[in-house]
Structure formats: structure tokens, C-alpha cells
Amino acid sequence: MPLVQCPDCQAQISDAAPTCPKCGRPMVAPKSVGSAMQPTALQSQPDVVRSIGTFFIGGGCLLFIVLAVIGTVMKNC
Ligand SMILES: [Zn+2]
After folding, report:
1. End-to-end Cα spacing for the chain
2. Higher-confidence position of 37 and 60
3. CA 8 to ligand 1 center in whole angstroms
4. Residue 16: pLDDT over 80
């Protein structure tokens, strides 16, 4: 387990430590954990937004077609 030096207090702390145990400064090393957590949280949302958007766009097109057909039928009557 490699030791890194805290930029704030110059303490030798563990590379796996999320924060400096001496001054509490967040370490840069665990950013892989944060970047691994954020994309998963962000990826789950766009999928939902995309599906909802596709649903509304498809529903809007269907509604438009139905209204156009009804309008044509009403004019013919
Ligand atoms: Zn420190």
C-alpha cells in the first residue's frame, strides 16, 4: 500500500485513504470511486429520459395522425 504526501499538511498517509486522517483533506486517489459512482447514477437517468422522450414523441406522432384521420373523416361526412 503506497504512501502519498498530503498537499496540505505534508503528512504521509495511505494511498487508499479517501481523506487525510490528519487534516481531513479529500485525496485525489479515490476519484476513481467517485467517477465510477457518478456515471452509473447519470447513465440510469438518461435512459429513463430517453424512453420517456421516445414515448412522448411517438405518442405525439400517433395522436397527430389520429387527429388528422379524424379530421379527414369529419370533413368527408
Ligand atoms: Zn493532510
Report:
1. 83
2. 60
3. 5
4. yes
